């Protein structure tokens, strides 16, 4: 007959399973502590970079609310040791530059810096350079702010079919008419946005050369170069596109210092 094994022989196997469970728990706790330490280090670096970005913005004679910085990539600590960061996102609000007078401020400038080089000593001491291989900036100019710049009573701007559209009441030869049409939007010199209203019409416009001349004069009067503030980080204006929420401005630059090097 088969012999029944004594119960005490099961105990080493149970103790082995218990030790494995304890080891797994310890590893999970250690992993959690490493994640916490990683996130704490991210917060410290983001504050340090934000302070250096603030100095750089001031150095370039621009103004904004305190920068909001987010360092991407995980784990962060390996990026610190390597001195190279995948991505740093910077949000600047209420950006105003050295341009005076009627220059339009940018409510929000979103900056996306890629392949950023910054040594641990630079982050700790604030001395040295934080350099991004590529920087892309995006901002939106509201239609209300553009309409205020054009300074024509009742004029409204919007996006229609991917184009900048205008609607405005106009008095032509004693008649109150509603003018509608679109504008060509271009990137001009010295960081200006060109608005050219070349296609305006008005329902009920008198079939007279003088009426058409007055309408064309109105179109020329609202065709302007919109001055933008000087953009930080050496950003150069590349494209302007009408969007439902406003004119979206995009700019870029390469090998850009993000801080005022000490």
Describe this structure in words.
This is DUF2993 domain-containing protein. InterPro entries: DUF2993. It comes from Micromonospora krabiensis. The chain is built from 5 helices and 11 strands; from the N terminus they run αβαββαβαββββαβββ. It is an alpha+beta fold and 262 residues long. The chain has a 6-stranded antiparallel beta sheet. The protein has a 5-stranded antiparallel beta sheet with strand order 5-6-7-8-9. The longest helix is centred in the N-terminal third of the chain and has 49 residues, at 11-59. The N and C termini lie far apart (88 Å).
What would the principal axes of the Cα set say about the shape? elongated
Cα-based radius of gyration, to the nearest Å? 30 Å
| SS-based class | alpha+beta
E-strand count:
11
Q: State the separation between the terminal residues, measured CA to CA.
A: 88 Å
* Side-by-side strand order of the widest sheet: 1-2-3-4-11-10
Q: Detail the poorly predicted runs.
A: none
Strand portion: 35-45%
Major sheet: 6 strands, antiparallel
Order of helices and strands: HEHEEHEHEEEEHEEE
In short:
It comes from Micromonospora krabiensis. Helices cover 32% and strands 39% of the residues.
Sum up the structure in keywords:
single chain; 262 residues; alpha+beta; six-stranded antiparallel beta sheet; five-stranded antiparallel beta sheet; 5 helices; 11 strands; 32% helix; DUF2993; DUF2993 domain-containing protein
């Amino acid at each position: 007959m088969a012999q029944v094994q004594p119960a005490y022989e099961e105990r080493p196997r149970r103790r082995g399973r218990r030790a494995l469970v304890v080891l797994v728990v310890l590893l999970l706790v250690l992993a959690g502590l490493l994640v916490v330490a990683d996130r704490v280090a991210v917060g410290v670096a983001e504050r340090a970079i934000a302070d250096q970005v603030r100095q750089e913005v001031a150095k370039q004679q621009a103004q904004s609310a305190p920068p909001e910085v987010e360092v991407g990539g995980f784990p962060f600590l390996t990026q610190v040791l390597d001195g190279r960061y995948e991505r740093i996102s910077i949000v600047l609000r209420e950006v105003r530059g050295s341009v005076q007078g009627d220059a339009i401020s940018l409510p929000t400038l979103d900056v996306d810096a890629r392949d950023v080089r910054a040594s641990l000593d630079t982050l700790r001491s604030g001395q040295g350079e934080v350099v991004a291989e590529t920087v892309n900036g995006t901002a939106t100019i509201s239609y209300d702010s553009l309409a205020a710049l054009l300074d024509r009573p009742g004029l409204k701007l919007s996006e229609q079919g991917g184009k900048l559209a205008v609607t405005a009441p106009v008095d032509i030869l004693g008649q109150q008419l509603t003018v509608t049409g679109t504008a060509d939007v271009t990137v001009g010199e010295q960081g200006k946005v060109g608005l050219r209203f070349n296609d305006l019409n008005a329902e009920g416009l008198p079939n007279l050369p003088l009426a058409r001349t007055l309408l064309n004069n109105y179109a020329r009067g609202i065709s302007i170069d919109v001055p933008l503030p000087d953009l930080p980080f050496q950003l150069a204006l590349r494209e302007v596109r009408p969007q439902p929420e406003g004119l979206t401005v995009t700019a870029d630059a390469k090998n850009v210092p993000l801080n005022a090097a000490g």
